[in-house]
Write a structure and sequence with these properties.
The protein is mostly helical. The chain contains 14 helices and 9 strands. Strand 7 (about 250) and strand 8 form a beta hairpin.
Length: about 400
């Protein structure tokens, strides 16, 4: 039987302990991995309050609470989620919402009105000029509609926490409607499925340029694997029949890269049969690695696909190489994720059952497989429609 926790403490589903207590009529909430850690953090908080270092609810700004909210999430979600949320919150924090330059983060948490949130929503899509802590002037492009909507959705979650902690009485984000997307969806541009002609021209040009990522491109086109999954493949994951996807490259909180212990989703752990082209790409990459390593014995802990200097694959570097190849080939630019859409499209055109494709791609929801990745060329539509007997 589990040991009973002290009064004011409760156990969360993720194993962390929540400690709620009151100081001078104000309710506080801290988190810890053990009762001892909770007690220590409570003592620290009481000392801060006594020294006047903690702002009261009515004095707390949006920026103050953003920092507290992120700190409370650490350890409960993946580092990549913390990093993404931090980027969005910091952007909202420094965004001006009126003509005099009042930033959203400087507003009092309990005084924010729905009109302020709507002003923020519009401002996020405009170019942002700001000064760093070192006084350097910088610019950032306006957010896409999707990014702006993601930011407001995150802000709604932040205010729900503030209500739970009794810092505010209502959620000013509730009345803000989602913006209608004006940009073309990525699935129709940089994430689009390539035509067979585009695919052939791209690979031909990549080979002529002696691209360091040529084998990677062939592998992605013939397996539908994500870039991070390909970058996380170790020698022990590969057999003569196929590859087992077990892990992926992830971003750390500080912006670095590491091979994570799991895939993007639980359904991501899967076996992908190897077609001749994919097998050849793996063999050629092994040979390239032997040359780079000077013929040394293969280290089982090192990934098969790496950056030219042996580091982990980074999407920015791969996409930069793709952009240069596209320029030389005279085709519209796309991202490495387009290989996944292309693989799915060729499978659908060949008549592969959706459930099979769903398993190969590692999706837990078949609607994602069909909606996001099952593109179809116009010529294929025409040919398949001709084969239908309507009488």
């Amino acid at each position: 039987m589990a040991k009973k926790l002290p009064a004011g403490m409760t156990l969360r589903a993720d194993g962390r302990i929540v400690n709620r207590f009151t100081i001078e009529g104000k309710r506080y909430c801290i988190y810890g991995r053990s009762v001892k850690e909770c007690r220590e953090r409570e003592t620290e908080k009481r000392d801060q309050v006594k020294a006047g270092l903690v702002k009261k609810g009515k004095e707390k700004t949006v920026g103050d609470y953003f920092d507290e909210w992120i700190a409370a999430k650490e350890g409960t979600v993946k580092p990549t989620t913390i990093r993404t949320d931090t980027i969005l919150l910091n952007r909202m924090k420094i965004t001006p919402i009126d003509k005099v330059g009042t930033t959203f983060g400087s507003l009092k948490l309990a005084k924010v009105e729905t009109a302020n949130v709507r002003a923020l929503q519009g401002a996020l899509q405009k170019e942002l000029k700001f000064k760093t802590d070192k006084g350097e002037e910088k610019k950032r492009k306006g957010m896409t509609t999707r990014a702006a909507n993601d930011s407001i959705h995150l802000l709604k979650a932040v205010y729900k926490s503030a209500i739970a902690e009794r810092l505010v009485n209502w959620n000013p984000v509730e009345g803000v409607k989602t913006l209608k997307r004006t940009e073309k969806a990525a699935r129709d541009t940089i994430h689009r499925a390539l035509t067979k002609a585009e695919t052939a021209k791209f690979l031909e040009t990549a080979k002529k340029r002696n691209s360091s990522y040529y084998n990677l491109y062939v592998f992605l086109l013939n397996t539908g694997a994500r870039l991070g999954e390909a970058g996380g493949l170790l020698p022990g994951d590969i057999t003569k029949d196929g590859v087992t996807i077990k892990r992926t490259i992830t971003r750390t909180e500080d912006g670095g890269y590491e091979i994570g212990s799991d895939t993007k989703t639980s359904a991501g752990v899967r076996f992908i049969p190897l077609m001749p082209e994919a097998s050849a790409a793996l063999d050629n990459q092994r040979k390239a690695n032997d040359i780079i390593g000077g013929g040394k014995v293969i280290e089982m802990g090192k990934p098969i696909f790496r950056a030219p200097r042996g580091s982990l694959l980074k999407s920015a570097n791969v996409n930069y190489d793709i952009a240069n190849i596209c320029s030389d080939a005279g085709i519209d630019k796309f991202s490495c994720h387009a290989f996944r859409a292309t693989f799915a499209t060729r499978c659908v055109e060949a008549g592969m059952p959706p459930k099979t494709l769903m398993s190969i791609l590692g999706h837990s929801d078949i609607s994602m497989t069909l909606t996001l990745y099952a593109h179809c060329e116009d010529n294929t539509k025409i040919e398949q429609l001709k084969a239908v007997n309507f009488v």
